[in-house]
Design goal:
This protein has two helices and three strands. With 104 residues, the protein is an alpha+beta fold.
């Protein structure tokens, strides 16, 4: 009796595996056929946000950093550093995260 039960369970498991595999394949093909866009990961940064902020401070150590964040602008990663100048103005510096160049 045990052998018959084991054989039935084995067939049931194989049937479920086949159906799950077919369902997964259909799901993947549907996403491809419907034209879902696959977004590639952003390229690795060659200059970190901290390094970019230090670069701005090094150019003018009399400014005060109010904030800094990395944004995607025109498909590129850009570090945006917000500073307060000595004359009370707020200024934004944009630094290309890949090259480290200021792009203001």
């Amino acid at each position: 009796m045990k052998t018959l039960t084991t054989a039935v369970e084995t067939r049931l498991i194989r049937s479920l595996q086949t159906r799950l595999s077919a369902s997964l394949l259909m799901f993947l093909l549907a996403n491809i056929c419907l034209g879902e866009e696959v977004i590639p990961p952003p390229p690795p940064l060659s200059i970190s946000l901290d390094q970019a902020t230090k670069q701005i401070i090094k150019n003018d150590n009399k400014i005060r950093v109010l904030g800094a964040e990395t944004e995607i602008i025109d498909g590129k990663q850009v570090h945006v550093i917000k500073v307060l100048t000595l004359d009370g103005r707020i200024q934004h510096f944009k630094i290309d995260a890949e090259t480290g160049e200021i792009i203001n």
